[in-house]
Every structure is written in structure tokens, then in C-alpha cells.
């Protein structure tokens, strides 16, 4: 009995679109929904413009108000400090020796010889007498050099320049302490040492120099 070839069966998975809708059109096969597109890469060598930075909120600083300038006159400059005064009791005959001892102590304590000026009210100091024997010019040249202790009497003291330390030997003479001490005080920069009668010197110092 001859075999009749069977008709090929079509599986359901291979079938095309099914029944048509009422309108008679074939329903299209649904397509996948496209997701978000990736950002396009920047071109090499040509970077894109930089993004502006977000605004920064700044806290306002406290501004100190300007100080008003004083309307009154300027304050006077502070006056220079007055020299310290030391009194060494001595008689007129011993004033020179007391002055020499004071100078030795000053030099031993580290004072430079050029810092010291010695003024006598009576007779000249032996050093000054010796130097004056070579003439006034040589004598004052040593004063101008300013590298050694300088000795002078009250009659020439006005010509002497100021020095940090002035030592006064009240060894008599017509000049009184009242006239010598103001001059010596004006020449002393830091220290004034007076060798003489304490009562006489204190009377002048009490009245102010």
C-alpha cells in the first residue's frame, strides 16, 4: 500500500502573526524600547568647555571701623631722661682724690675712658696741668679725640662736649656749687657724680639743677 507523504506540520513557535484585528491590519511585531543614549565621547585634543564652578557663599568679614584721628594737638615728645646723680662726701682738700677713686671704679666696671669727663671747681687736675703744658691746641685735641678721660676746670667746662658720665670735684675755688652743678648736669648724659661737701651739694640739689 503506497505511503502518502504527510503534510509538514508547522509548529506554533514558527507561525507568523496570528489573527488579524478587526480593522483588517496585521499587528506589527513589538520592538524593544531604546534606553538612554550614552554621552558622546569628547573629541581627542579638543576637550569640552569647563563647567562653571558652583557659586561659593562667602561670609562677610567684620570690618573694623576706622579710628578717628585726634582732633587735638599732637602729644609732646617724651623728654630725655635726666642723668642719675650720686654724691660722694669729701672735703675740699680730698675732693680730687675722691674723684680719682670714682673714675677708677667707673673704668673697672667697664666704662670706656672716653665716656668720662672730670670737672674741678678749684685747681686743675694734675693731668690737665700736664697736658696744658704742651699748649691749648694739643690739650683740646685730646678732648676732640674722645678716647680718654678728659679733665678740665669750671672755667673751661663750657667748651667741653657732653659725655655719658661727668664727675665733679668740688675742691674749692671761687666757683660755688650752685653755678657748677647746673653746668655739669647739662653735660652728663647718664650719670653725674659729685664729690664735695654734702650739705652744700644737697642744698643745690634740693633747689633743683
Walk me through what this model shows.
The model is unreliable at 11-17, 19-24, 29-48 and 54-79 (pLDDT under 50). The protein has a five-stranded parallel sheet with strand order 1-5-4-2-3, sandwiched between helices. Strand 4 (163-169), helix 4 (177-187) and strand 5 form a beta-alpha-beta unit. It has helices at residues 95-108, 126-132, 136-145, 177-187, 198-207, and strands at 84-89, 116-120, 150-153, 163-169, 188-196. The radius of gyration is 56 Å and the shape is globular. It is an alpha/beta fold.
What is the typical, i.e. mean, pLDDT? 75
Count of discrete alpha- or pi-helical segments spanning 4 or more residues = 5
Structural class: alpha/beta
Over all CA atoms, what is the radius of gyration?
Answer: 56 Å
Measured by DSSP, the beta-strand proportion falls in 5-15%
Q: What's the SSE pattern?
A: EHEHHEEHEH
Short overview:
With 209 residues, the chain is an alpha/beta fold.
Quickly list its features:
alpha/beta, five-stranded parallel beta sheet, 5 helices, 15% strand
Give the helices and strands, then pairings.
Blueprint lengths: L83 E6 L5 H14 L7 E5 L5 H7 L3 H10 L4 E4 L9 E7 L7 H11 E9 L1 H10 L2
Parallel strand pairs: 1-5, 2-3, 2-4, 4-5
